[in-house]
Amino acid sequence: MSEIKTLQYRIDGPEDGPVLVLGPALGTTWHMWDRQIPELSRHWRVLRFDLPGHGGAPAYPASSVRELAGRLLATLDQIGIDRFGYAGCSLGGAIGAELALRHPLRVGSLALVSASPRFGTADSFRQRGVVVRTNGLDPVARATPERWFTPAFAGAQPAIVDWAVQMVRTTDPGCYIACCEALAAFDARAELGLISAPTLVLVGADDEVTPPADARVLVAGIPDARLAMVPGTSHLAPVEQPAAVTDLLVRHFSGTWQSPDHPTGMTAIPAPPVKPVLTPAPPATPTTTPTATPAAEIGWAAAPEPVPDVRTDAFERGIKVRREVLGDAHVDRAESQIDEFTGDFQDFITRYAWGEVWTRPGIDRRTRSVITLTALVARGHLDELAFHTRAALRNGLTPAEIKEVLLHTGVYCGVPAANAAFAVAQRVIREETSPEE
Questions:
Q1: Beta-strand pair 9-12/45-49
Q2: Torsions phi, psi for 2 (to 5 deg)
Q3: What is the mean predicted confidence (pLDDT) over 103-109?
Q4: Given CB 3.0 to 4.6 Å as the disulfide criterion, which of 9, 136, 149, 195 pairs with 153?
Q5: Helix (H, G, I), strand (E, B), or coil: what is residue 146?
Q6: Which of 210, 218, 214, 215 is nearest to 191 (CA)?
Q7: How many beta carbons lie within 10 A of that of residue 160, not counting itself?
């Protein structure tokens, strides 16, 4: 029986205080919350944790948000913490949403910072994993400042920028890739209405990674949620505007820890029966200083109507795996070309190839990619070889391993077939593994 994995953590604040858990962003450590700790630990027993392979934590990859949430709960159980408040940034926010959805009785209050119900596109995170697997974390680390901070902050705070780059660079690559997979698969849009914890959604006005539009989707979907927008701030808001973020968190969590008689020190705030109302934000100025007042607020929203599921289990399994392996862009392109003539065939391959064969447990996806590449070379199917080379990279094969597969086909499928395959694979690998500038 395998041991249940837990997370690296530290605790600050009074031992008898209500517990507040702080979750980190991808590529960061618990130190991203350092500037919040002096004030938060005056009121709460604050627990911070590191993601696997981050900040020197044991490198046991977890490739889904649900698994990360499970490891956090195992950690809290080990310490004896039952009910808690939770604030998480980016991937840490996804973990918070997962906890609030699957374990509502344990999450008394929630803050989602720089978060989204779906982070970018699955394709973008899976390609980032391919780039890291091929080139290491250095290209991603060097691009971190422009994703995390506004240009003004990055120019004024070079020491913090260097700290951020080094923090990403020293993360375990395998664990970073697994977290990319977790974000690629995360999509809570259809379930937001099930989150019952009073929720603060906090976003930087200049965040391009999880922009304010994503925050508004969260607020519109979560019944008891409010929006706070911090001017002049990008993605890593707790670092860029520590005073503003701290004050907003104190105000939010203080408002949901109102009953001293409650065994956890927390009470839920009932949602008033009003429709969402957006109040305009005050104009930002270049000299804006951190403020305790949210620049924009949205009231409570009704849960979205559930969409009926009319497709078969095999089709649903197939479309999920097909998107994970080939990418959303490829599948969207194929589906956009479906008509009366081709529809039955697309349904056939989705159900049988992807929903039945690719989902069988006998061999893993890496091995299936090796088999698929070999078969496509043997039959000369170069168009399909191109997108299955992309799939192989996403399924964990390195360019060196793909080269070995194609060399092997030269022996058993013929040199001309392998020669044509090398040309196709070389082009695809260059496109997929070149870091974004």
A1: antiparallel
A2: -75, 145
A3: 97
A4: 149
A5: helix
A6: 218
A7: 17
Q: Are 251 and 294 in contact (CB under 8 A)?
A: no
Rounded-to-integer distance, Cα 215 and Cα 276, Å: 13
| 8 Å CB contact between 231 and 290 | no
Averaged pLDDT, 355-372 = 92
Phi, psi at 208, each rounded to 5°: -100, -10
Greatest CA separation for the chain:
78
> How far is 72 from 60, CA to CA, in rounded Å?
13
- Coil, helix or strand for 139? helix
At 394-431, the pLDDT tens digits run: 999 999 999 999 999 999 999 999 999 999 999 999 99
Confidence of residue 437 (pLDDT cuts 50, 70, 90): low
| Pairing verdict, β 225-230 and 107-113 | unpaired
| Residue 4: φ, ψ to 5° | -70, 125
**Per-residue pLDDT, 256:** 67
Q: Which residue has the tokens 């889904």?
A: 64
Q: Which SS3 state, helix, strand or coil, does residue 337 take?
A: coil
- C-alpha 203/C-alpha 167 separation (Å) is 22
- Residue 270 pLDDT > 50: no
Kindly report, residue by residue over 301-355, the tens digit of the pLDDT: 344 444 444 446 889 998 989 988 888 888 888 889 999 899 899 999 999 999 9
Q: What angle do CA 148, 119, 125 make, to 5 degrees?
A: 85
Residue in this structure with the two tokens 């039952």, named with its chain if needed: 82
User: Do 173 and 137 form a contact (C-beta atoms < 8 A)?
Assistant: yes
The dihedral sign for the CA sequence 209, 215, 216, 218? positive
Share of the chain residues as helix, strand and coil, in percent rounded to the nearest 5: 50, 10, 40
Instruction: Give, rounded to a whole angstrom, the gap between the first and last alpha carbons of the chain.
Output: 46
Q: Which residues have CB under 8 Å from 56's CB, separation 6+?
A: 8, 50
Question: What is the C-alpha to C-alpha distance for residues 117 and 436, in angstroms, rounded to an integer?
Answer: 25
The secondary structure of 168-217 as a DSSP string is HHTS-HHHHHHHHHHHHH---GGGGGG--S-EEEEEETT-SSS-HHHHHH
Residue 229: strand pairing partners: 203
